[in-house]
UniProtKB/TrEMBL annotation:
Protein name: Molybdopterin-dependent oxidoreductase
Presence of the UniProt keyword Oxidoreductase in the record: yes
Source organism of this protein record: Pseudaquabacterium inlustre
Keyword flag Iron: yes
Recorded family membership: Belongs to the prokaryotic molybdopterin-containing oxidoreductase family. NasA/NapA/NarB subfamily.
Swiss-Prot/TrEMBL cofactor(s): Mo-bis(molybdopterin guanine dinucleotide); [4Fe-4S] cluster
Keywords for this protein: 4Fe-4S, Iron, Iron-sulfur, Metal-binding, Molybdenum, Nitrate assimilation, Oxidoreductase
Domain 4Fe-4S Mo/W bis-MGD-type: 4-60
Amino acid sequence: MAQPHSTRSTCPYCGVGCGVIIERDGAQITGVRGDPDHPANFGRLCSKGSTLHLTASPAVQQQARLLQPMRRMQRGAAPVASDWATATDDIANRLADIATTHGPDAIGLYVSGQLLTEDYYVFNKLAKGLLGTNNIDTNSRLCMSSAVAGYKATLGADAPPACYDDLALADTVFVAGANPAWAHPILFRRLEDARQARPGQKLIVVDPRRTDTAAAADLHLQILPGSDIALFHGLLHLMLWEGWIDARHIAEHTSGFDALKARVQAFTPQETARLTGVSEFDLALAARWFATAGRTLSLYCQGLNQSSSGTAKNAALINLHLATGQIGKPGAGPFSLTGQPNAMGGREVGGLANLLSAHRDLANPQHRAEVAALWGLSDVPATPGKTAVEMFQAAADGQIKALWIACTNPAQSMPDQTTVRRALERAELVIVQEAFATTATARHADWLLPATTWGEKDGTVTNSERRISRVRPAVPAPGQARHDWLIARDIAQALEAQLRPGQPPLFDYPTPEHVWNEHRESTRGRDLDITGLSYALLDTLGPQQWPMPEGAAQGRARLYEDGRYATPDGRARFADVAYLPLAEPRDARYPVSLTTGRLRDQWHGMSRTGTLGRLFGHAPEPVVDLHPQDMAQLRLQAGDLVQISSRRGTLLLPAQATDSVAPGQAHVAMHWGDEVLGGRALPGQVAAGINALTTGAFCPASKQPELKHTAVRLGKADLP
Ligand code: SF4
């Protein structure tokens, strides 16, 4: 049990969603430990989670926290202290003015999977219900939108069908484009436990790099970058050839198999080996373990999602589960991992440019009418909103005049930073709502609004397995910091006075629970129905998985156990997807494949983890990982500065020799931005970390950019 000065909450870092117990002394957070009763982690925490309390130390608060509204009177000048009344009025006036002069689509809101569900809900309603624009998108677009589109294309709903307990029940675990050993460490420990308890369990890892997860695998399929679809089609070809498919599941519960069957005919073992670089022997072994070992669970993340064919990659993997009947039963299913703590919650409230509340689709007139009725409006706008890359491109082109950015750092995390920086410079009004004022984006803000953060916030998040957990405040907000939902609510109320005077209020929320209750009502009858849940039940029952409709005693662990999918006819749809090349294949000028990834002890742009020296012990500085063979060819020694150039920019980084990358490939962690690398930019270049190089090309279905692959050339830096 938590002690009197202890508060149960949730880790704010990754999508595993571990429960934490926060210790405090007065108004100071003094410790954190894993919650033994939380079903995600059962008391364990990783290196990031177990040091959370240190990121709330007085020294860090003093150095890094934004504690009062700040206003920049002109671009390039230092911001000056202001107050909430002035900030709220000025922002509301300027947004109303821009909406009236240029139309509501001249405003863009860019939010974050770090926000709580309640924050997300208010922002989404503010944009679509009050301003009248669907220009609200989120950094989750960079993280999981291909998983969303993949699920909807095949299973009919954005709903991961499996759960964490399946790790211990699977006979084969198939990890594709994910490195849980570093990016989802507590899940990986659960996987290690499962392998110890059941030594026969097989682990297959698909990754162009030999990551720590791949090193632990029974079979590492070290594919050529971007060849995932060829691999999945090739495995299906083998399964068909060997008769390892579940003909009954296909006949009774799916549609569209014949077209896919015809397509994968071309993916013979020889051809698949040529396309993927994986031997025919390993292909045959992988197909056998996947299809015949018993129960197969797939885990996948950015390696599939962050791709210009991300949706097709997701769907091609789900095809394998549908063809073999590895879904809807314990220990089996396609299971996308979310990167962020509340990427799922953002999807639930429809906080993306193409979605509406409770997994409704903006393009569906019936769904728009339902949401309008819920909000007491005549309609919500039908014009598709701009997704992340499109939004910053539109701002760079002068179409979007105001950018309101909450809890995220696009001046580091978005691809093609030259365009992003141009957008931030060209927009007439840039509002940045942040807990930490140290981000690259904050330097572009006209208004800096101080937000609360972990240990102070109150609301809910949903983790990768659809489990809703409470986030509770242990200490009061420091300085004048306010909760994100409250900042949005107050500005919304000021805007209402101008945009819909005399009409019933839309944002009458005294507490986050009122917001959540409205969200809950929006889910009634939907696939994620949580009308049987409440804040009070989350207190007594603990975290629950959706759906949990009225009358249910608890949430549901797995979906589709009755073989009925979320499509209109109840049948899952095989996706007949083509194998598409990379957006930017290697060529003679840019002959190296650059991929990006995460480190074990850092999180996103390091605004929080970067405040702790001890978390740099594992990887003290940014480096470019190169195969020793390439190092020798380029006459590089370890530590030599390498000039890395793509079609968009150049970056200088020290070289590190490792055989974790294959020859012809390079890898750079995505955590560092221009705070560290600024001094090393070449004249005329944007020094914005690795995203000075990456491409804004995105998947046409999910609009998720191809952050995982950039064609580059390398050379020893020739510094004066
Ligand atoms: Fe936090 Fe993720 Fe680590 Fe759990 S695994 S403690 S959620 S960072």
